[in-house]
Amino acid sequence: MKNYRITVNGVAYDVAVEELGAGEASAAPVSTPTAVPAPAKKAAPKTSGSAGAVKITAPMPGKIVAVKAQAGASVKKGDAVLVLEAMKMENEICAAQDGVIASVEVAVGDMVEGGDVLATMN
């Protein structure tokens, strides 16, 4: 028997798989997997400064592949602040208004969920 942990839709399952020899078949009943608690999320976000009044949030879950504006940078409405990869597509996350980036809460390679704060601005 070999034991594996499989995660489906964020729920981890421990399963045992029996190895069969060549030409061997098994009619053993299938057991129901038991749920295992999912790993805890990261403790604290990485911040680049003090938080601003306007939050820039992730519209969907994905991976941060680029940070285009650092804390202290002036941005215009529509300027790309970050690039989020979701479902193999790169999505530019843009400033909703003119302002100055107060903090960047994520780094390249971070996995984020929809609604997570990515950056703040004033």
UniProtKB/TrEMBL annotation:
Residues 51-122 form the Lipoyl-binding domain. Keywords: Biotin. It comes from the Bacteria. InterPro entries: Biotin_BS, Biotin_Carboxyl_Carrier/Decarb, Biotin_lipoyl, Single_hybrid_motif. PROSITE patterns: BIOTIN, BIOTINYL_LIPOYL. SUPFAM superfamilies: Single hybrid motif (SSF51230). Residues 25-47 have a biased composition (Low complexity). Residues 24-47 are annotated as: Disordered. Pfam families: Biotin_lipoyl (PF00364). This is Biotin/lipoyl-binding protein. It comes from Anaerobutyricum hallii. The lineage of its organism: Bacteria, Bacillati, Bacillota, Clostridia, Lachnospirales.
